[in-house]
Automatic annotation (TrEMBL):
One of its GO terms (biological process) is vesicle-mediated transport. It is a multi-pass membrane protein. The chain crosses the membrane at residues 142-171, 192-208, 214-231. Belongs to the PRA1 family. Keywords: Membrane, Transmembrane, Transmembrane helix, Transport. Pfam families: PRA1 (PF03208). GO terms for cellular component: endoplasmic reticulum; membrane. This is PRA1 family protein. It is found in: Endomembrane system; Membrane. It comes from Eruca vesicaria subsp. sativa. The keyword Transmembrane helix applies. May be involved in both secretory and endocytic intracellular trafficking in the endosomal/prevacuolar compartments. InterPro entries: Prenylated_rab_accept_PRA1.
Length: 244
């Protein structure tokens, strides 16, 4: 039975529908949709490779072993490409200042979640989407982790801790002297003292290895953020009304 065209029917393009899902907060449906699309794209290749029949019965076992081996290495290569694609993603491209103004998501149920809250991204597109959305959602958690890693780095490098405290004390001394001797009335003298303070701070931070502690904390927190955001499944945001 053929149906007549409905003038009220609408054809929504996929980018518009995905944008609506993202704006409405249905991030889990968007994640599942991306995973299903990647699986559907990989299905024809798998079916074409398995459709070839063996030439002789004696070589059937060899063909089975060969197909299993090829499938394993193909899957391993795909996963390696997906993981390496995380290094090409800019996780801060969609981050804004408003993402740090909200409440911090709970660490147990929100940030870490259960074991089934993680899955291997089906494709690079899904990994990119997860990183962007999870970085926006857990921005305050990642910032807290960076502070913790930086504190651990300073604990392991006491000289860097001394340099950081010395630089803070230097600027507190500058503020005290500025208020005491009214440097605001003498702009040229104020600029000179600020320049001297900046040079002294740079020397302290460089020779006392504060930049090394900062770099190590940044590297560890950035790696943890990419892995967590890439493997963490998307969940519905607070915009949705599900569960009410």
């Amino acid at each position: 039975m053929a149906f007549s065209p409905n003038p009220l029917s609408l054809s929504v393009p996929d980018p518009a529908f995905e944008s609506w899902l993202r704006d409405s907060g249905y991030l889990d449906l968007l994640d599942h949709r991306t995973s299903a699309a990647a699986s559907a794209a990989a299905a024809p290749a798998a079916s074409s490779s398995s459709s070839s029949a063996p030439a002789a019965p004696s070589s059937a076992s060899d063909d089975v072993v060969s197909s299993i081996t090829n499938g394993f290495f193909a899957s391993l290569l795909t996963r390696l490409v997906t993981v390496s694609s995380l290094l090409t993603i800019n996780p801060f491209s969609k981050l804004s200042a408003d993402d740090f103004s909200g409440d911090t998501p709970p660490w147990t149920t929100g940030f870490f979640g259960a074991c089934d809250s993680y899955s291997f991204p089906a494709a690079s597109q899904q990994a990119r989407m997860r990183v962007h959305e999870n970085v926006k959602r857990f921005a305050r958690n990642y910032a807290t982790l960076f502070i913790v890693f930086f504190a651990c780095a300073l604990y392991q490098m006491p000289l860097a801790l001394v340099g950081l405290l010395a630089s803070l004390a230097l600027w507190e001394l500058f503020k005290y002297c500025s208020d005491r001797w009214k440097f605001d009335r003498h702009p040229s003298a104020r600029k000179l003292v600020i320049g001297i303070g900046q040079c002294a701070t740079a020397v302290l931070l460089t020779f006392l290895n504060v930049q090394m502690a900062l770099f190590s904390a940044l590297a560890v927190s950035y790696s943890v953020m990419l892995l967590h955001a890439g493997f963490r499944k998307l969940t519905p945001s607070k915009k949705t009304s599900r569960g009410r």
